[in-house]
Amino acid sequence: MTPPAVRLTAISKRFGAVQANDAVDLTVAAGAIHGIIGENGAGKSTLVSILSGHYTADSGEIALFGKPVKLATSADAIALGIGMVHQHFMLVPNFTVLENLMLGLAKAPFLAESRADVRERLARIEEDYGLSVDPDMVVERLPVGLQQRVEIIKALIGGGRILILDEPTGVLTPDETDRLFESLKVLKSKGVTILLITHKLREIMAITDTVSVMRRGRMVAHTATADTDRASLAELMVGRSVELVTNTRSRAAGEVALAVRDLSAEDETGKGRLHAISFDLRAGEIVGVAGVAGNGQSELLAVLAGLTPPSGGSFAFAGRTVSAAAPADPHLMRRLGLAHVPEDRRREGLVMAFQMLENAVLGYLRFARGARRWLLEKRRMRERCDGLMRRFDVRPPDPRLRAAGFSGGNQQKLVLAREHGAAPTVLLVGQPTRGVDIGAIEFIHRELLALRDKGCAILLVSVELDEILALSDRVMAMNAGRIVGILDAADADRQSVGLMMAGVDRAANSDRAAMGRAGMGHAGMGHAAGDER
Amino acid sequence: MHEVIVDIAQILASTLRLSTPLILCAMAGLFSERAGVVDIGLEGKLLMGAFAAAAVASLTGSPWLGLLAGILAGMAMALVHAFACITHRGDQIVSGVAINILASGLTVVMGIAIFSQGGQSPPLSREERFLPITLPFADALRGVPILGPIYADLISGQNLLVYVALLSVPLAVVVLFATSFGLRLRAVGEAPEAVDSAGYSVAWLRYRAVLIAGLLCGMGGAYLSIAHGGGFVREMSAGKGYIALAALIFGKWRPVPTLFACLLFGVLESSASRLSGVSLPLVGAIPVDVVLLAPYVLTVVLLAGFFGRAIPPRALSVPYVKDR
Amino acid sequence: MSAAPLPRWADVVVIPAINLVLAFLVAGAVVAIIGENPWRAFLVMIEGAFVYPGSLGYTLYYATNFIFTGLAVAVAYHARLFNIGGEGQAAIGGLGIALVCLALDPYLPGVLVIPIAIAAAALFGAGWAFLPGFLQATRGSHVVITTIMFNFIAAGVLVSLLTGPLIRPGQSTPQTRNIAEGATLPKVHEILRAMGFDAASSPLNLSLLFALVAAVGVWVLVWRTPFGYRLRTLGESEPAARYAGVAVPRTIVIAMMISGALAGMMAINDVLGAQEKLVLNFTAGYGFTGIAVALMGRGHPVGIVMASLLFGALYQGGAELSFEFRTIDREMVLVIQGLIILFSGALAYMFEAPLSRLLSRRGRRAVHA
């Protein structure tokens, strides 16, 4: 019997106070697709970073194909045939594909000597694995799926026999994901051993042969994928049975709170990012915006929050119409009753170096001003923060600690608490549970539903389709800056929304009922538009 | 006609001489900044190089040892910068400011300690300096129309280090764009994580880039004190390091445009003295100060984006932190 | 990343102290290499800064300059703007004072001229910082580079004016005529003598008071006002500032102008207080020293006042060095200054991780005991 491709024994790694990996064992058979699943922060990324030489383990042993090895640097791992495809691409954006490949491969002093060799290797990769890409394209001009292919080629072209993919599908459409999985199956058939790191149960079930589950830095289970199912994997991940929130609606949606009409926006370079977006958001409903990252959802949030001006069209909110001629700013939008939980909590939603009491008034200095309006009162800020922390169970409940000292879930709870505390009529929410532990996810989901039930209109943007489907009353799919369609929750399932995310307006072809509601087939305005006419 | 050509050749020659330290410093900055390390300390390294070169040339009588000392001094300062910015991820601008101030102080303190002449070095004799090199037949060909004066007064009769500075530009082009070291150096200024994950050390690449910068600045300093000038004088770098930095930005971090920016600033400097007092129609007399300030004003105007955007390397001034 | 954050006392006291000691040790090594006794040099400096008659006045006079320029650097730095242009802004501030005084002192009484002159110093300094701030805010040109360029331009402007239209008639030194007696700030020794105390002469004048008021003002501005909150938010994270509705360009411009105004006010001390005229190069690098002061003081007014005192003592004591030693010059102070910027600025966190490990190990041992 052939020795396993990878055998890790008692790997431990500590970062300061955090034990990221605690005596982890892992065995991966040669030529298998092995999944490692776990929650955010379970230690999956640390483990594969050790395997790829990016970090060095504090203790433990690594053996490849039966031979014990030392992996002190990335170079060691690459030399031993380990290739890693990172979650965030490790490519030089303004270099060509060829230059990016030569970064690791060019050994001769002059590039000219290596160029022909690298082209030849690239041709061989295409022949062997069916992975093709134009070597002279500048990487930043390639679509994301192709950029990822470059990463995979990079991992294999130096003679890689073990391929590690860290959360590879986060940036892909369902369709691109399927294509990636096809490629992986081809690689497997050619004898490449594959480690797939993910937090998505569906992917594990779809493609892996064997699976390991990590929880809080420990390996808690190894099993053949065929012998398990999603429910038991989920339970292993979390350590208890998962109680998913169910969206039971207490009352029908109310008045239109936010009316968006033909809204367009451009980025700084003048490139169109949003194209003629129209929809209504009603009091007491959650509209989920589904889409692969980068298809205009972030821009939509930015325009509605007053962060970027629209380039065309308008939206009406609280008696005011915002357009290119009459732009808004975040300050004005907040005063009108719009709150915003931003997608990037660490860069936007909080100032990491600030105390929580300062973060509790970010955007809401009106709650911090004292009797003399030009001064801020520390006492008022502390009291406000205290209240928010208690209401949303933020731990530790100390307003004087800096934001950086809180876990992702507690940071997010504070942001949500702050926006909640302003009693908004419309709430924009971006990626509410990114990098948040399961306990906090449940809490956040429940609070969003409660807020909806109290009559708040919520626009929810998330790249987690499961989250969208679980919380939304209506689902709006975006692709390339356009609304592909809007479905009622009852009609929305993974498949139909996934197709729409890929730009296929299925509603227009097959689902007549949905089409009627979506405003005669074109980028729909939602059923509210019909009521208005 | 012939006189005009002679005049032009002489202006260009003086331009070349004044541009030389700018070119060396700007190429230094090019290497450092293309690798992602801001180099505001060009000025300090230039000054240190000038002092060390003059001091050693004076003490040993050898311009070659002086040059070597200038280079080593420039590299020593670069090493401090690298240690602070790369090893300890310090603020690159703060470190550059520290180096400039340190150089201002150290050169004078050491100068007094060694020579007791108020911070200057003794004037250097001809044997202790690099002198203009007369190329073959320069004098014989001077009479040839047009090409004669250009050969005799511009191409010939320059200092060794002037030729070195001019050579440094094509050399920079080759190193940065035709070698695998250059490819990785540029990559480390754009996306260091890509280089790291490819198995190459970001720190070591950046160290080398910063040390090359030190070497070139040291040469520039040596040129000031033992080639162009005849000894070290307090603050003799006189802002040239900053002008070189301006030229680098003006040249949009590319070698050949940077060379032309250096030459442009050199022309302004060399013509300043000639233009002073010259009365132009409508404008009246041109004050020297205004011409001398032109590089600074031009740089501000360029940075404001009026001649097209100068896009710096993406990872410039960002310390590399290995992170998840 | 690898170590726990330091307790506040260690961050505020121990780390700066270590950095300062290191800077002095290296400077001492330089003195030793030159062949002098570093300890003796240190004593000479202390004596020169505090003991000789009038020396304390000089020390405080220098400190006044550094409080202004240090505060200037700090205010901008809270918005992560690195204003290296204090030198130029101070020079132009001085120009403002000179223009006001030369134009008005024949006609108006001093009590009117002085406040106008002080306002002019602040306005001219702010004006000189406006363009770099505006260009950063609207065109993205980096203030570091533009303020460096503006330093050179300011120096050029002053040379032109002081060798030309503003030069004192019949003189070749590049300086203006003296400001009328009643229109200058009283010197401290004059006040003390008037009150019947015996006081040695020094250039120390009422500007010190203004500097201390400015320090308090900066503290209130940065930590107690909405503007300060926005300033710090912008400094920590521009996306967060934009999210919070901070008008980023306006905040950048205002921050730079406040910074420039503080730097410009440094000129009060020299032009209106000590020299009583505008002299070429009166800024003498104080603008750059402000960087060291702000870094050492960690951007906090209390720290800045303390660091200013230290640098005041260094400048005054350093002047004494050249009298006592044949081979050491006051430029030694520049060496120390450069080292302080290096250690407490660029290498500020060299000792953070080791110290944090040391503290946590001790903490753990205490728990086990």
From TrEMBL, chain A:
Name of the protein: ABC transporter ATP-binding protein
Residues covered by the ABC transporter domain: 6-241, 258-505
SMART domains attached to this UniProt entry: AAA
InterPro entries: AAA+_ATPase (IPR003593), ABC_carbohydrate_import_ATPase (IPR050107), ABC_transporter-like_ATP-bd (IPR003439), P-loop_NTPase (IPR027417)
Keyword Ligase belongs to the record: no
GO molecular function: ATP binding; ATP hydrolysis activity
Organism classification: Bacteria, Pseudomonadati, Pseudomonadota, Alphaproteobacteria, Hyphomicrobiales
Species: Acuticoccus mangrovi
Alphabetical UniProt keywords: ATP-binding, Nucleotide-binding
Automatic annotation (TrEMBL), chain B:
Subcellular localization, as worded in the UniProt entry: Cell membrane
Transmembrane segments: 12-32, 67-86, 93-115, 130-148, 160-185, 205-230, 242-268, 280-307
Pfam family, one: BPD_transp_2
Annotated membrane topology: Multi-pass membrane protein
GO CC aspect terms: plasma membrane
Major place of residence: membrane
Superkingdom in the source lineage: Bacteria
Entry GO MF terms: transmembrane transporter activity
Keywords: Cell membrane, Membrane, Transmembrane, Transmembrane helix
Protein name, entry field: ABC transporter permease
Lineage: Bacteria, Pseudomonadati, Pseudomonadota, Alphaproteobacteria, Hyphomicrobiales
From TrEMBL, chain C:
Residue ranges that the Swiss-Prot or TrEMBL entry lists as coiled coil: none
The entry's keywords: Cell membrane, Membrane, Transmembrane, Transmembrane helix
Signal peptide (UniProt feature, chain positions): none
Predominant place of localization: membrane
Keyword Transmembrane helix: yes
Chain segments annotated as transmembrane: 12-35, 55-77, 89-107, 113-131, 143-167, 204-222, 243-268, 332-351
Keyword ATP-binding: no
Molecular function per GO: transmembrane transporter activity
Annotated GO CC locations: plasma membrane
Membrane topology: Multi-pass membrane protein
A Pfam entry, by short name: BPD_transp_2
Domain of life: Bacteria
Cell compartments where the protein resides: Cell membrane
Protein name, as recorded: ABC transporter permease
Organism annotation: Acuticoccus mangrovi
Lineage: Bacteria, Pseudomonadati, Pseudomonadota, Alphaproteobacteria, Hyphomicrobiales
